[in-house]
């Protein structure tokens, strides 16, 4: 009786967690949501066989959101483990960890559930990469081309195709393109006057259910367009006037001429300071002065 009560509370706890997730489901298909909720209710009532049946049917339906896909495989994995279907439970846990690699189980779950879960985690530790999806946007400049690139990490080849969607501005419809699985990109031109790009990327399986996503139509990612620098023509003119060459200034040449003249005069006087008066006279002029001899030599 005690164990049954504990199991009931664990089931109800998981059911509540899934229900809260449901309330915030992104892009949830309204036609599938009642069936997902019914599978959760069956699990919450400890009706594991009914929960498995409902979850199995849902796993074959088309167009589940990522949130719905995770919820369905969580129900399927734990319900199968609770029924002792170890191998099928492990397979379901492997897929659950594909869609949501950071999934954890409460320690309150016993070995019956923990063992296939741990085996699934061991399987993923042996894989070359962790499953997921990356989306990158090149630099955005008005009037220039740009690229939105999507790169899935899909070691188990679960992804069938990619949806790359974008729009300029915070409102309006998205332009979406569906491309084959693998690294893909979409090129576009940034219109003049735009300041932001909204986008999302989805990786889908063969049933068009969303295996991985980066953003969504309801909560897209945003990249900002680089702002153009505004140049003031008047400032440019002032800058040009302020940066005139010094050689164009008449003041410079007047000062330079004065310095050169002063230098020439100084040089002249230095050069003639040791000469006699006759030697200092210009060649085209003459002068008369007395000459005194000291013996045979001219007195100096």
Describe it for me?
This protein has 300 residues and is an alpha+beta fold. It has three domains: 2-125, Serine Threonine Protein Phosphatase 5, Tetratricopeptide repeat, CATH 1.25.40; 132-224, Immunoglobulin-like (Sandwich); 235-298, no CATH class. Helix content is 43%, strand content 19%. The protein is built from nine helices and ten strands. The protein has helices at residues 2-23, 33-44, 48-59, 66-82, 86-99, 111-125, 233-242, 250-272, 277-280, and strands spanning 132-137, 145-153, 161-168, 175-180, 184-189, 196-204, 210-214, 221-224, 293-294, 297-298. The strands form three sheets. Strands 3, 4, 6, 7 and 8 form a five-stranded antiparallel β-sheet that branches. A three-stranded antiparallel β-sheet has the order 1-2-5, with no helix packed on it. A two-stranded antiparallel sheet has the order 9-10. α4 (66-82) runs antiparallel to α5 (86-99). The longest helix has 23 residues, at 250-272.
